[in-house]
Design goal:
The complex is a heterodimer.
Chain A (H helix, E strand, L loop, with lengths): L1 H12 L5 H19 L3 H22 L3 H8 L2 H7 L4 H30 L4 H28 L7 H27 L6 H29 L2
Chain B lengths: L1 E11 L2 E12 L3 E5 L6 H8 L7 E7 L12 E4 L11 H12 L10 H7 L15 H14 L4 E5 L7 H16 L3 E5 L9 E5 L6
Parallel strand pairs in B: 3-7, 3-8, 5-6, 6-7
Antiparallel strand pairs in B: 1-2, 1-4
Helix pairs in contact in B: 2-4, 3-4
The chains are: A mainly alpha, B alpha/beta.
InterPro entries (chain B): AAA+_ATPase (IPR003593), ABC_transporter-like_ATP-bd (IPR003439), ABC_transporter-like_CS (IPR017871), ABC_transptr_haem_export_CcmA (IPR005895), P-loop_NTPase (IPR027417)
GO molecular function (chain B): ATP binding; ATP hydrolysis activity; transmembrane transporter activity
GO biological process, one term (chain B): cytochrome complex assembly
Chain lengths: 219, 207
């Protein structure tokens, strides 16, 4: 299983891998917002956490369709399906590697992009923390969509649309936890705990659903 | 150890592609599946590999190692595609499969260098898999069968894209595997040149 994790990490940083694509997209989205909204620093600071979260959500969805499709195209998926190792463990490890390659760089990039949005250090810290807790949920939800669309040649957009309704609660609680940390009267912990609960919930449901979808995609 | 298939039939879409296939293979025996295109050779192998559900019938092992419910957990499957990543070097590919697959009880895989040498391609394992020619890629996919031990080999057109020398080399690998008590089921048009083979002729349905 460790071998699978490191192989997927290696693949994502080699030519054709998706590791940098997500971060670049994230950067593009956040960098153009100040030009569109205008130089009102207070407004930018106020919408900053929401913009960072939306950018991160879209960037995290970007490379998901290749999660199982690349394995299917070269025949590796057949071998992954045949093993004695439970398939949901294999799926979980692939999700973990995918998150480490594409989700974690988004979390690391978020403080720098927060500066673009004139956010103070408290808001930046809260955004980073909520992204760290929330992006794994997006990957795990996306794995289900990727598994359902594994046999479709151009499933990219379809995966995003399929998983978007499930990813919306992650966005809502991620953003509300971030605002709660910045604005005093609202408590930070309740929305953050719900965000973590969503992540843990999908850590269980996601691999099970994706494994079931992969089993039935075999042709 | 014996591999038994009883009354297998499989469906592709609406049509029954084969019907009521039964065979018994003891350790050290090979089954060569022949037949025209579309007669269901690949489908039969995918059913045996557990990748397609059978319409009826069952596959089971007698006297296999305990704890394995399905024969496909003890099988190597070499399909039309090589299951190797073009971006990784041959060595990274083989070492991944060696560690991921692990050895089945009753045998051990051989080292990467020895496996590359066995398929006649020692010395190029540092190259990315995508740089190799189609024939070399196929040979390296065969090396994958050697690095992790599995008693049953399911081979779908294993010698496509291979030259005559590689055919002989491949027949040698199969013979060695059979001598060690393995079971081989191959869909192929090339004669394997081995005595202990059973033959299964797929005819397909006439519409």
């Amino acid at each position: 299983m460790i071998a699978l994790f490191f192989r997927d990490l290696k693949l994502s940083v080699r030519a054709g891998g998706g590791a940098m694509i997500g971060v670049l997209f994230f950067m593009t989205v956040v960098a153009v917002i100040p030009f569109g909204v205008g130089p009102d620093l207070n407004l930018l600071a106020r919408i900053g956490p929401a913009i960072l979260w939306i950018g991160a959500l879209l960037a995290a969805l970007l490379g998901l369709d290749r999660l199982f499709q690349a394995e299917r195209e070269d025949g590796s998926l057949d071998l992954l399906l045949m093993q004695e190792t439970p398939l949901l463990l294999t799926v979980f490890v692939k999700c973990a590697a995918h998150w480490a390659a594409t989700g974690l760089p988004l979390v690391i990039a978020s403080p720098f992009l927060g500066l673009f949005m004139n956010m103070d250090e408290r808001a930046i810290g809260a955004t980073m923390l909520t992204l760290l807790g929330g992006t794994p949920a997006i990957t795990l939800i996306g794995a289900v969509g990727a598994a359902v669309a594994v046999a479709l040649p151009r499933g990219g957009l379809l995966v995003s649309i399929l998983v978007l309704p499930l990813a919306i609660p992650v966005l809502i609680f991620g953003v509300s936890a971030t605002y709660a940390a910045v604005e005093d009267p609202a408590p930070f912990l309740p929305p953050f705990m719900i965000l973590m609960a969503i992540t843990l919930f999908f850590a269980v449901i996601g691999p099970v659903a994706a494994a079931a979808a992969l089993r039935h995609s075999a042709d | 150890m014996r591999l038994l298939a009883e009354g297998l039939s499989a469906r592709r879409g609406e049509d029954l592609i084969f019907h009521d296939i039964s065979f018994v293979l003891a350790a050290g025996e090979a089954l060569v599946v022949t037949g025209p295109n579309g007669s269901g050779k690949s489908t039969l192998l995918r059913v045996l590999a557990g990748l397609l559900g059978a319409e009826s019938g069952r596959i089971h092992l007698e006297g296999g190692p305990p704890g394995f419910e399905h024969p496909h957990e003890l099988s190597h499957y070499l399909g039309h595609r090589n299951a190797m990543k073009r971006e990784l070097t041959v060595e990274e590919n083989l070492s991944f499969w060696q560690r991921f697959l692990g050895d089945s009880p009753g045998g051990a895989g051989i080292a990467l260098d020895a496996a590359a040498e066995a398929v006649g391609l020692a010395g190029i394992t540092h190259l990315p898999f995508g740089y190799l020619s189609a024939g070399q890629q196929r040979r390296m996919a065969m090396a994958k069968l050697l690095v992790a031990y599995r008693p049953i080999w399911l081979l779908d057109e294993p010698t496509a894209a291979l030259d005559a020398g590689a055919d002989r080399l491949f027949a040698g690998l199969v013979a060695t595997h059979l001598d060690r008590g393995g079971i081989v089921i191959a869909a192929t048009h090339q004669p394997l040149g081995i005595e202990r083979t059973k033959a299964l002729q797929m005819t397909g349905f006439v519409h």
